[in-house]
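Researcher: Here's a chain I'd like modeled. Treat it as a single chain, no partners, no ligands.
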Amino acid sequence: MGAGIEMSLMIPTTRPAIQAMIGQHSAAIEVTADQWLSWFVAAFLLGAAAGGLLFGWLGDRVGRVRAMASSIICYSLITGLGYFADTPEQLLVLRFVACLGIGGMWPTGVALVSEAWPGLSRPMMAGLIGTAANVGFLLLGVVMFYHPITPASWRWVMLLGAAPTVLGVGIWLALPESPEWLVLREGEQTGRRNSGPAPVREVFQVPWRRLTLMGIWLGTIPLLGGWASGQRLVPWAGQVAERAALGDLKATTQTVWSCGAVLGSLLGGWVASKIGRRLSYGLISAGSLGLSVYIFVGLRPGHSLFLPAAFGLGLVSTMFFGWLPYFLPELFPTRIRATGMGVSFNFGRILSAVALLSTTSLSRWFGGDIAKMGAVTSLVYAAGLVLAFAIPRPEQLPHTDASHGSDT
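Model: Modeled as a single isolated chain. Structure tokens:
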């Protein structure tokens, strides 16, 4: 949940912060703000990718709990320093460093939950993890109703992002370590198991290379679709509301989208378990594509169907993030699980960041028209329809740590 707040911070904050720092109040601000939004999201994706690799590796080396606690303290403290940023460049650097911790939270947290509660159903586990992050998005939207983010008042968001520091310290001091990891470490220390090659290198060797590449592409499509397209709903609503005096439509849009996202991420793992990994990934891709194009081409903030459609997009597109923690852990055996998931998901972030940065020229081309940007970038979901056919079934995996149930 804390990481979810962090991930959503710059979506409603970028435009007011750029207005305050640069002082532009003309049409040029729309292009500038959209370009900086791309840079901030790219900083998040690249920082989270590096952090996922770093803290995922630490999770396999020093334990899931210490690595996870360190990641939380990292993203919280550095976000708090953003309160003192005077230029967009300073804020960009701080966001990159903070996002090291955001990226580290995911592989260590998923590995810990899946190992500490082996009896918990994996669809439920995956749904709870994905839902918690979107509750963070929702909380920020609710707070925005009472404290609007404006050019004159945006720094308070950074202090809100520093709040999970207390959680990180509490986890370090009080949370028990994964019993499965402890057994593995004891076996290595007593010589019952060879340590083998370094995990980061191993996930790119046979037989794991093919699965690692699959994991990377499975993570790239929802990341790029969500951040390059879906997350533009909030700044688009703020842009239109400011011009048409529609009230705080930005906070309403974030809250409505987040309500759908909370439900969607909770259902993602359950849907995958019921209708199969392949079919569910394909249907989620098709639904995300259809809703995105419908909203950005056929609707406009303030239209009677805009908020219901935003809810629908939040629900469908975030099913990916219940699907991924359900499926990715089974790709790798216990000893390289955190590293393998970190590599898979966070290399997807790198590819998404590169693709997102390449879209900054589109912002100039479209004159800061967020709707056109969102419509074009949503086409990435079409690739998910193709990729779904290549997803391996559980019985095709080259290890026995995964649950080899039936699939469609």
